[in-house]
Specification:
β7 and β8 form a beta hairpin. The chain is of the alpha/beta class. It has one domain (5-155): YbaK protein. The chain is globular, with a radius of gyration of 14 Å. It has helices spanning 5-13, 29-36, 68-75, 84-90, 137-143; strands at 19-22, 43-51, 54-61, 64-66, 80-81, 109-113, 121-125, 131-136, 148-150, 153-155. Pfam families: tRNA_edit. One of its GO terms (molecular function) is aminoacyl-tRNA deacylase activity. This is Ala-tRNA(Pro) deacylase.
Length: 156
């Protein structure tokens, strides 16, 4: 599978510079980092949470896990992981588990861990398990639109 259509269209609409980095098939963001020889701190991993109010896309470094307690305090929401079925419906142009961190492209409210803003460049899933999109840190911030920035992750 190639880059997801919504990712391609969103990158073109935003008129940003990006590169694609091919890597062997991977099952996790950290495995992608290892196979592509990139620090897990520079790979933006997506975690989709949900509650009765809807979905929330949380973007953290691949080297971290989401701090659900902190997100609960921040959002006052009782969030849990979205199911594989729900992810398939939300990201129908992506392979299962290869969720791009571009909430605005998928009309999802987005929270991003503030440590990603410290990175000079960012890599993220293109919608499959064999390509990463590479953009500058500044460009990544632009692509996130109105995303809220907070400390919402802890290192693995």
């Amino acid at each position: 599978m190639a880059m997801a259509n919504r990712v391609v269209n969103y990158l073109l609409e935003q008129d940003v510079d990006f590169d694609l980095l091919d890597h062997p098939h991977s099952a996790t963001s950290m495995e992608s980092a290892q196979l592509a020889h990139i620090s897990g701190d520079r790979i933006a991993k997506s975690v989709v949470l949900e509650d009765e109010r809807g979905y929330l896309l949380v973007v953290v470094p691949a080297s971290c896990r989401v701090d659900l307690g902190e997100l609960h305090r921040l959002t006052r929401r009782n969030l849990g992981l979205a199911t594989e079925y729900e992810l398939g419906a939300l990201f129908e142009d992506c392979e299962p588990g290869a969720v791009p961190p571009l909430g605005p492209a998928y009309d999802l409210e987005t929270i991003v861990d503030e440590t990603l803003a410290e990175q000079p460049d960012i890599y993220f899933e293109a919608g499959d398990h064999e390509q990463l999109v590479h953009v500058s840190g500044e460009t990544f911030e632009t692509l996130l639109g109105e995303a809220q920035h907070t400390d919402c992750s802890r290192h693995l």
